[in-house]
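User: I've been trying to design a sequence by hand for this structure and keep getting stuck. Would you show me what you'd pick, starting by listing the structure so we're on the same page?

Assistant: Good idea, let's start from the same input. This is the structure you sent:
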């Protein structure tokens, strides 16, 4: 990348020590820059421990293939470092999904729902091979959607195989797409691939990417699994394609979302993943998404006039998922499949950190389309540690349409979580919905102003802490846990 006068040239060994020290000091000690970087780095998920994503290096060891390619689940739950909230610690203490499908009119929230959605937001950070079977265990999806666990494990295995055979694959790639296809077909049965990877490699892998250039198997398999709608499935995972310049440099898109309909309750849940945890290279796409502080017109996402502007980084994250450049909305197409235009099917959106911002944009899109006659029954948007998303015009339009439709819009802030304070008010950003402030020992819905921030700003961004504090409030605030329809 060419150097710019704005960024400054890198220091050289030929500079005098005093001049070098002075110039480095001027570059690094800009107070506003440091504060922005420190705040944005807090977006790094719930903790600084490493979390597996859909493109994890190591295959989960609890999903194995039985005879005739059938999935055989060895354990019901993943290790604790994978799923942040296992089923045994769920709001029901197990696999019974005690979610309120029909909250009372005028109720600001349902705390049981808030805890379930915070659990789903937390586990969105896990590898899909762990998260998918947990969702199935809670009753999401149709028969056959259990295959997501196998496919997720296969994606990791193909990734590992590609790393272990990099030299051979590079030679095949140089020879062309046919050489790649031939090489992988020869390996599909001899390697420890499951039925999902075998079917793809033997019948669907073309050796070409979207640009019609030779493409390695991991990226092609990932596109096949996570960039294609299956209209028969009630559970769908998506990951974004590289969209921004930095994502293209890093070779990956970072945005992820799961959309799932419950098999028994009239409920569709859409959960966006927050910023990838940790400081490893894979989090840089998220980092640069958060770093962009400019705003863009919502018309770029197909909104009708009057919606104002939103954070450009968040808009790019949504566009990386939604194929808007191609004129097709992947997520809205899937949402129509999941709801089937049934007005009794309620839509609930959630997300932590960056995921909360993307969930807000998705909710705004649903409100906009519903305002123009599309049959959607948006019931709630619950976010955890979400940043501000748009300007005052965006927030006003959002709140007006949500109130008219009785949508519960709740943004949870735990203690000093600094991410909820950025981007700043001085830059024209505003929050949507109602603040639910989680202090150590109480839940406050009636604060006149946003509380200040203290020394625990990074620690308080942890998604597990949101889950725990909401759980503490449930027996104390029965007035916020009412339901007209109890499963």
């Amino acid at each position: 990348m060419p150097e710019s006068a704005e960024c400054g040239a890198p220091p050289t060994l030929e500079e005098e020590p005093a001049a070098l020290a002075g110039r480095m000091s001027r570059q690094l000690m800009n107070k506003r820059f440091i504060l922005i970087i420190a705040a944005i780095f807090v977006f790094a998920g719930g903790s600084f421990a490493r979390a597996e994503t859909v493109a994890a290096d190591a295959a989960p060891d609890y999903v194995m293939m039985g005879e005739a390619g059938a999935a055989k689940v060895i354990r019901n739950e993943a290790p604790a470092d994978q799923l942040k909230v296992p089923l045994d610690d769920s709001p029901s203490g197990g696999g019974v999904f005690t979610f309120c499908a029909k909250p009372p009119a005028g109720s600001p929230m349902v705390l049981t729902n808030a805890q379930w959605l915070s659990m789903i937001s937390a586990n969105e950070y896990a590898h899909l091979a762990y998260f998918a079977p947990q969702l199935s265990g809670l009753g999401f999806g149709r028969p056959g959607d259990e295959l997501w666990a196998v496919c997720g494990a296969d994606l990791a295995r193909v990734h590992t195989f590609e790393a272990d055979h990099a030299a051979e694959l590079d030679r095949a790639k140089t020879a062309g797409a046919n050489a790649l296809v031939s090489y992988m077909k020869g390996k599909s049965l001899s390697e420890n691939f499951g039925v999902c990877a075998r079917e793809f490699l033997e019948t669907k892998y073309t050796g070409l990417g979207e640009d019609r250039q030779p493409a390695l198997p991991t990226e092609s398999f990932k596109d096949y699994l996570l960039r294609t709608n299956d209209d028969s499935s009630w559970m769908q995972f998506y990951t974004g394609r590289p969209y921004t310049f930095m994502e293209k440099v890093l070779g990956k898109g970072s945005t992820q979302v799961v959309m799932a309909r419950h098999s028994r309750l009239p409920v569709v849940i859409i959960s966006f993943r927050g910023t990838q945890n940790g400081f490893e290279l894979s989090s840089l796409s998220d980092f640069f998404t958060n770093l962009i502080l400019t705003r863009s017109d919502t018309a770029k996402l197909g909104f009708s006039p009057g919606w104002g502007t939103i954070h450009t980084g968040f808009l790019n994250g949504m566009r990386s998922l939604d194929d808007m450049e191609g004129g097709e909305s992947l997520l809205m197409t899937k949402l129509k499949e999941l709801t089937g235009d049934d007005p009794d099917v309620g839509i609930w959106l959630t997300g932590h950190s960056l995921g909360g911002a993307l969930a807000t944009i998705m909710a705004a899109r649903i409100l906009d389309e519903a305002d123009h006659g599309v049959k959607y029954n948006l019931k709630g948007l619950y976010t955890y540690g979400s940043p501000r998303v748009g300007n005052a015009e965006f927030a006003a339009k959002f709140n007006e349409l949500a109130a008219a439709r009785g949508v519960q819009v709740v943004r949870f802030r735990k203690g000093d979580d600094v991410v909820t304070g950025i981007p700043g008010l001085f830059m024209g950003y505003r929050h949507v919905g109602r603040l639910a402030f989680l202090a150590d020992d109480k839940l406050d819905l009636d604060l006149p102003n946003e509380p200040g921030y203290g020394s625990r700003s990074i620690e308080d961004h942890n998604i597990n802490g949101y889950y725990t504090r909401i759980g503490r409030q449930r027996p104390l605030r029965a007035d916020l846990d009412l339901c007209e329809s109890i499963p």
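That's my pick for every position. To get oriented when you compare it with your attempt: The domain at 20-48+83-143+234-487 is CATH 3.40.50.1820 (Rossmann fold). The CA atoms of residues 56 and 156 lie 6 Å apart.
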